[in-house]
Specification:
Layout (H helix, E strand, L loop, with lengths): L7 E6 H11 L13 H16 L8 E5 L7 H5 L18 H10 L3 E3 L6 H14 L3 E5 L13 E5 L4 E3 L1 H8 L6 H8 L14 H11 L2 H6 L7 H9 L1 H11 L21 H11 L2 H11 L33 E2 L3 H14 L1 E8 L9 E9 L2 E6 L3 E5 L5 E3 L6 H13 L4 E4 L2 H10 L7 E3 H9 L7 H9 L7 H4 L13 H28 L3 H8 L2 H11 L1 E3 L1 H26 L8 H11 L6 E2 L5 E2 L2 H8 L3 H25 L7 E2 L2 E3 L9 E3 L11 H4 L5 E2 L4 E8 L2 H10 L2 H8 L4 H10 L8 H15 L4 H8 L3 H14 L1 H17 L1 E3 L5 E3 L8 H33 L5 E6 L3 E7 L3 H13 L14 E6 L2 H4 L1
Parallel strand pairs: 1-2, 1-4, 2-3, 4-5, 7-10, 8-13, 13-14
Antiparallel strand pairs: 5-6, 8-9, 9-10, 11-12, 15-18, 15-21, 16-17, 19-20, 22-26, 22-27, 23-24, 25-26
Helix pairs in contact: 1-2, 2-4, 4-12, 7-8, 7-11, 12-13, 14-15, 16-22, 17-20, 18-20, 23-26, 25-26, 28-34, 28-35, 30-31, 31-32, 32-33, 33-34, 35-36
The structure holds a DNA duplex (9 and 16 nucleotides).
EC number: 2.7.7.7
Family: Belongs to the DNA polymerase type-A family.
Subunit structure: Single-chain monomer with multiple functions.
DNA sequence: TGATTCACG
DNA sequence: GACGTACGTGAATCAG
């Protein structure tokens, strides 16, 4: 067929496929000879998926996979540093490159490359040719360098996210249309490709300039008109560099190709050729899949079926497509029996539960899914309703379900069997559900925690995100079953047939992720982190959450009423001051009154154009203006009432009379926990009025609450990590660290220390932990920025090791893309090499992460050991608040618990680490949290 | 839904 | 002399 109108050309960015396949999969090797084939395997799966997905009415008529050839292109002749900062290709990837060409040919897809040109140039040339011939083009790539080609029938498709990028998508990314993308790129440069651009100008600023001047040439010609001096100077002085950058990013639409569009016509693969290649690579699953599909016999592959607890490594989990219609529905004991037997035989089983909601302490179990061999999963419906009401208005159970107790009795021994590994995604949730039904789940692996140990900072760790990223599969959205908004139903109302597909798929996905992650833990050297800091903590948290803490409803209720009364008084006072009624809770309206009606200075607008009225601004105004002071008073009470005294009451569990928070183990990238529903890690303490809310957190009759918290743990860790002798000695001597810092910095003897000087030093100490800046310290201390900068300079002069630590940490982050805690936890810093304001954020985060993260690791270790340490004592660990642990204990044994808990906490770093700085723990006890703290 | 504000370490 | 900044969280509320 001659390429022309009605034709549709697909251009696949082959290099992108290869690199994605390489990084998404563990380094698999061919069993027979050890040849690395992970990337080839992934590549073939992606091609297969691509072919499968493109058979419909919108199928392409022409297709080609385009590769780069060699590393030297005409761009290197223009600029010898082009792509010079690229890391060398990994050793185990190099031999796989030619195999990806062979794979493409085996699939009978045109495979094109051209010496001296990048794949992008070929794609550009073909796109233009196809467009000129009147056809459509889809470029399968997410490379932003290709966005300049979009428009007039040319689209991009991000196969990863299954997202089409059209003209609007380009504008979203670059702030300009495709025809101006190169102008923006020329200015912004590209650190990945080492395109210099204009220093100090990023995409945002570039788009602004191009939109204002219309084009790069116009901008450069009229650069003298620019107001900002630095920017003006850059554009004038760096003109050559910017023009060079444009040449580097501009794709060549006239590459000399030795083929035509007509040569790219879609062809069916030759079964023999394709299967020969796949079986030669020893891709068993994919070979079988395709041979079944084509109805031909595949060449035999040497069988070396491995047994044991380790998952099969050679079959990439992505090999197998998801087939929801094949999942089994288990309706009786006879059907369940073989699954339990198979789990015992294998030594592992993926488990997932379905429930009527998200509050593990209240919801009902609706069903259980299992998966032992990827692709084969089952769902056991147990609590589905048939939709018909009985006399009491509650539904009857649907037909065809096992009695709940029978299923649990059968599963109970398996789930508690120490020789069978249970595998879950966020298994803490499922374990808590099971626990309420008298079923213990142990031991268990958790794919969410595995992902967190390997990839904190890179992406989220929810099932949907992991499935899409690592299995290239978008799970059935729960919304498609439950609906959303107020018409949403609970899972027990979902028809069993639909539930099977959704629920079993979750177990299938979980098992596949586990098979993928298990070997990766070793390769990424985080096995110890996972095994000592993540996996053992999960059941500890589950028990703390289930235990909960008693909260006195009457205390909260009384406070609520008192707050409401006071707020009403403030409100009428505010209306009086303003001369009219308004919504005190609206920052926009408060701002309008202050900065427009009252005409005060100092108002700033947010990026949405609204007046901004944060507390520090109002505080500055409050000394002069009652209105600002009253708004602050009102806001404080509003916060206390809505978030604490009111909302907390709703969280008191009617069965236990206690509040059960949920800790999110993967919530903070640094290794800290997050607490939700409710958040018990931000109960007020700093203000006197707020602190009284802690009086509502009480011990049971005859018991007391204990609070043990690490003293200055982050500063101690900083002293240790940065190795600052003066700080370390001060901690060893038990000195007041802020006073000592102040003394060093300001040359004031300790016995002449004033509270104000100490306060400043304290602010600096904290600032250091956060990646200090003159601006931040100035704002915190409310002093001029120059003065703040002076303090910082002085601090670094006295403690030069701190600066070296900061420099070394940021450099490490730049080199490796992550930073580490002292216990080996990795926190990825993908933004560290970004340009623009993001760079500052990333740098400070990189400085803070090892410190905050090491402290988080220490208390995790303490928590993991704590249960054994206080076993036998009438005590329970209830809450963790970053550096504090809260216990409930029989009053007469409080001192024993304090002694043991303190010892565990103070020695938590050992034996993995021998800190030269002591960790010390302060303890308190009382009838309520306010007294204990 | 995103922005704003504010509670904690 | 331009810009925009303390690090890490979760929840309530407004506004579109």
């Amino acid at each position: 067929m001659q390429f022309g109108k009605g034709c549709h050309l697909h251009l696949i960015d082959g290099s992108a496929f290869i690199f994605r396949a390489y990084h998404a999969l563990p380094p698999l090797t061919r069993k027979s000879d050890g040849l690395p084939i992970g990337a080839v395997s992934g590549f073939c799966n992606m091609l297969y998926k691509y072919v499968e997905a493109n058979t419909g009415p919108d199928a392409p008529t022409h297709v080609a996979v385009i590769f780069d050839k060699g590393s030297h292109t005409f761009r290197n002749d223009l600029y010898d540093l082009y792509k010079a900062n690229r890391e060398a290709m990994p050793e185990d990837l190099r031999p796989q490159i030619p195999l990806t060409r062979e794979a493409t040919i085996a699939f009978n897809i045109a495979c094109k490359e051209l010496a001296g040109y990048e794949a992008d140039d070929i794609i550009a040339t073909l796109s233009v040719q196809a467009r000129d011939a009147g056809g459509r083009v889809t470029i399968i790539s997410s490379d932003k360098d290709l966005m300049q080609l979009v428009g007039d029938g040319v689209e991009m498709l991000d196969a990863m996210k299954n997202k089409r990028i059209d003209r609007d998508g380009v504008i979203e990314k670059f702030g300009v249309g495709p025809e101006r993308v190169v102008d923006v790129q020329a200015l912004a440069g590209d650190s990945v490709d080492n395109v210099p651009g204009a220093p100090g100008i990023g995409i945002k600023t570039a788009a602004l300039l191009i939109n204002e001047y219309g084009s790069l040439e116009e901008l450069l010609d009229r650069a003298g008109e620019i107001k900002q001096p630095k920017r003006r100077q850059t554009l004038i002085e760096k003109r050559d560099q910017i023009e060079l950058s444009k040449k580097l990013v501009q794709l060549d639409c006239n590459t000399p190709l030795d083929f035509t569009l007509d040569d790219l016509e879609v062809r069916d693969p030759d079964p023999e050729t394709l299967l020969e290649f796949l079986s030669g690579m020893e891709f068993r699953t994919l070979t079988k899949r395709i041979s079944d599909q084509l109805g031909v016999d595949a060449p035999a592959i040497k069988d070396t079926d491995p047994r044991g607890a380790e998952p099969e490594a050679a079959d990439a989990p992505a090999d197998l497509p998801f087939a929801p219609e094949t999942y089994a529905c288990i309706r009786d004991a006879q059907a369940l029996e073989p699954w339990i037997a198979r789990a015992r035989e294998r030594g592992y089983v993926a488990v997932d539960t379905e429930t009527t909601g998200l509050d593990e302490m209240r919801v009902d179990l609706v069903g259980i899914s299992l998966c032992i061999d990827s692709g084969k999963a089952c769902y056991i419906p147990l609590g589905h309703k048939d939709g018909s009401d009985d006399l009491f208005g509650s539904d009857n159970l649907a037909e065809g379900q096992m009695p709940l107790e029978q299923a649990l009795d059968m599963l109970r021994p398996l789930l508690a069997d120490p020789s069978v590994m249970k595998i879950g995604q966020n298994m803490k949730y499922d374990a808590k559900i099971f626990a309420r039904y008298g079923v213990t789940v142990t031991p268990y692996d958790d794919t969410m925690l595995m992902s967190y140990a390997m990839n904190a900072g890179l992406h989220g760790h929810g099932m949907d995100a992991l499935a899409e990223r690592y299995l290239s599969h978008a799970p059935i959205p729960i919304k498609s079953l439950l609906g959303s908004g107020k018409s949403a139903i609970t899972f027990d109302r979902v028809p069993i047939d639909d539930a099977v597909k959704y629920a079993a798929e979750d177990a299938d996905i979980t098992l596949r992720l586990w098979e993928l992650f298990k070997p990766q833990l070793h390769q990424t050297r985080v096995t110890t982190v996972y095994e000592t800091l993540e996996r053992p903590l999960s059941p500890v948290l589950a028990r703390m959450e289930m235990h909960g803490i008693k909260v006195d409803r009457d205390t909260l209720s009384r406070m609520s009423n008192a707050f409401a009364q006071k707020m009403a008084g403030y409100e009428s006072e505010l209306f009086e001051l303003a001369g009219h009624e308004f919504n005190v809770q609206s920052p926009a309206q408060v701002g309008a009154i202050l900065f427009e009606e009252m005409g005060l200075d100092g108002g700033k607008k947010t990026k949405t154009g609204q007046w901004s009225t944060p507390a520090d601004v109002l505080e500055d105004l409050a000394t002069e203006h009652d209105f600002a002071a009253r708004v602050l008073d009102y806001r404080q009470l509003q916060k206390l009432k809505s978030t604490y005294t009111d909302a907390l009451q709703d969280h008191i569990n009617p069965d236990t009379g206690r509040v059960h928070t949920s800790y999110v183990q993967t919530g903070a990238n640094t290794g800290r926990l997050a607490s939700t529903d409710p958040n018990l890690q931000n109960i007020p303490v700093r203000s006197e009025e707020g602190r009284r809310i802690r009086e509502a957190f009480v011990a049971e009759e005859g018991k007391v609450l204990l609070s043990l918290d690490y003293s200055q743990i982050e500063l101690r860790i900083l002293a240790e990590m940065a190795d600052i002798p003066a700080l370390k000695q001060a901690f060893k001597d038990g000195l007041d660290i802020h006073a000592m810092t102040a003394s060093e910095m300001f040359d004031v003897p300790l016995d002449q220390m004033t509270p104000d000087i100490r306060r400043r030093a304290k602010a600096i100490n904290f600032g250091v932990i956060y990646g200090i800046s003159g601006f931040g310290l100035a704002r915190n201390l409310r002093i001029p920025r120059a003065e703040a900068q002076g303090f910082i300079d002085r601090y670094f002069e006295r403690f030069p090791g701190i600066r070296s630590y900061m420099d070394a940490t940021t450099q490490f982050a730049k080199d490796h893309g992550y930073v580490q805690t002292m216990f080996g936890r990795k926190i990825h810093t993908p933004e560290i090499n970004a340009k623009g304001p993001g760079a500052g954020f990333a740098k400070r985060a990189a400085i803070n992460a090892p410190i905050q993260g090491t402290a988080a690791d220490v208390i995790r270790r303490a928590m993991i050991r704590m249960e054994d340490a206080i076993a036998g004592l009438p005590a329970k660990m209830l809450l963790q608040v970053h550096d504090e642990l809260l216990f409930e204990v029989d009053a007469d044994r409080a001192d024993d618990v304090i002694a043991r808990a303190r010892d565990v906490m103070e020695t938590a770093a050992a034996p993995a680490l021998h800190l030269s700085v002591p960790l010390t723990v302060d303890a308190g006890q009382g009838q309520n949290w306010a007294e204990a703290h």
